[in-house]
Write a structure and sequence with these properties.
Blueprint (H helix, E strand, L loop, with lengths): L6 H7 L5 E6 H14 L3 E6 L6 H8 L4 E4 L2 H9 L7 E3 L6 H7 L4 E4 L2 H14 L3 E8 L16 E2 H13 L3 E7 L9 H22 L5 E3 L17 H14 L6 E5 L9 E13 L2 E6 L8 H11 L20 E3 L6 E7 L8 E9 L6 E4 L21 E5 L5 E3 L1
Parallel strand pairs: 1-17, 2-3, 2-10, 3-4, 4-5, 5-6, 6-7, 6-8, 8-9, 9-10, 12-14
Antiparallel strand pairs: 1-11, 11-12, 11-16, 13-16, 14-15, 17-18
Helix pairs in contact: 2-9, 7-8, 8-9
């Protein structure tokens, strides 16, 4: 078993809960420490949408990380945790006037469209302030190409460069930074390093047209985690070294560099545990009925849905819902050595409530526990737990000292 989790703690908590997440503080601290060690002169923003559990958030922010906020509520949670305004970047599309007005005192707002720049200017005028803002760009390059593509996110690079003179004339805003997020879950450090290089080129073009120094460049995310047992971790030491080289080579002096963590710091900290509620055989097929599968941790069920329609054995990822067909391990917490082939299904009244098909596992009995890996990010946060009004899974936190906190 390659995946790290506290087996004894899972079994102990299974006496109290039929299904639950267990988030491990020690793994979070390992991951945050690695990023801080490998990257010099870079600030990190926690992508809170991956896992907004209060203790996960508190642990990450305690390490000096800021907040990549995808909503006003996430910006407010960062503020509640004592994160300063300049370390909270609110960059979601479709912000309302009320969102912007409430965020102005607590976050750096990243405008997602030409219209949103105007909305921020209007809100700043109402508040009688001059707001320092960033703009999200859709650059004329991608992770894999030197040519840009259409996107729902950001302002096309060409349109932004053309709009700069108008922005410079606005009395209630000052554009001080740029933000690009082109991809998540990339494992090839060379690809990410080339993206960083393109970002510095974009920043120089933008700064030259802007006519004054950029105070920050938000590189977005991109650093992925191994999901499949065959995946290799991203070489963050290489990326940190490449970033240092680029910071020295380019004329973006005294500009703060941000990198969003994506799922990197929390993805491996979580395990999902669910109990066997029933076992049945139908026309030769064995079904293991688990508590809260699709409505507890939806992503394994999405794999079954995608593979039912896929035209090939390894369909392209569609983040953050589908990564790969083998993105999760199912670990039977039993000493049984005899195996059998089963379908793992849930307790919802829908035939689509399937976590795994034709999987070989040790023989299971009612009351046994299955642990599912890679449950620390885009897990509870994307799951429809209200489906059929079942009791949702608990979300538990185990401290580095082994204390279990249920809240």
């Amino acid at each position: 078993m390659s995946y790290k989790f506290n087996r004894s703690a899972v079994l102990e908590q299974a006496k109290l809960h039929d299904s639950f997440y267990l988030y491990d503080e020690s793994i979070i601290l390992e991951n945050t420490a690695r990023l801080k060690s490998d990257f010099s002169g870079v600030s990190f923003l926690y992508s809170m949408k991956t896992n907004p559990h209060p203790l996960v958030v508190k642990t990450i922010l305690s390490q000096g990380f800021g907040v990549d906020a995808a909503s006003l509520a996430e910006a407010q949670l960062g503020n509640k945790n004592g994160v300063p305004k300049e370390m909270i970047q609110y960059s979601a599309p479709g912000k309302t006037e009320k969102d912007i007005e409430a965020a102005l005192p607590i976050a750096t707002i990243i405008a997602d469209s030409l219209n949103e720049v105007k909305l921020i200017d209007k809100a700043a005028e109402k508040a009688e302030i001059k707001a320092k803002i960033g703009v999200r760009l859709n650059p004329d390059f991608t992770f894999y190409s030197e040519k840009g593509i259409p996107s729902k996110f950001g302002i096309d690079e060409e349109a932004a460069l053309e709009a700069i003179p108008q922005w410079n004339e606005m009395k209630n805003i000052e554009v001080i930074g740029i933000h690009v997020h082109s991809k998540s879950q990339e494992l090839n450090a060379e690809v990410i390093g080339k993206y960083y290089k393109n970002m510095f080129g974009l920043a120089e073009r933008f700064q030259q047209k802007l006519g004054h120094k950029l105070e920050f460049i938000n590189m977005g995310s991109g650093i992925g985690i191994p999901f499949s047992v065959n995946d290799m971790p991203v070489d963050t030491a290489f990326l940190g070294s490449r970033m240092s080289e680029l910071m020295s080579e380019h004329s973006i002096s005294d500009t703060k560099i941000f990198i969003e963590t994506g799922r990197y710091v929390s993805g491996k900290c979580g395990v999902y545990a669910t109990k066997v509620l029933d076992k049945k055989v139908s026309r030769g097929k064995t079904y293991i009925v688990l508590d809260n599968t699709l409505n507890g941790f939806i992503r394994p069920s999405i794999i079954q849905f995608v593979m039912g329609f896929a035209k090939d054995d390894y369909p392209a990822a569609n983040e953050p819902l589908f990564t790969s067909r083998d993105a999760f391990e199912f670990i039977a917490l039993t000493d049984e050595t005899e195996t059998e082939t089963v379908d793992l299904v849930g307790n919802l009244c829908t035939a689509q409530d399937i976590a795994a098909k034709d999987i070989v596992l040790p023989k299971l009995n009612v009351g046994d526990v299955i642990a599912i890996t890679n449950a620390g990010s885009y897990a509870a946060s994307v799951t429809p737990m209200q489906f059929s009004t079942h009791t949702p899974p608990a979300q538990l936190f185990i401290t580095k000292d082994g204390e279990i906190i249920d809240k």
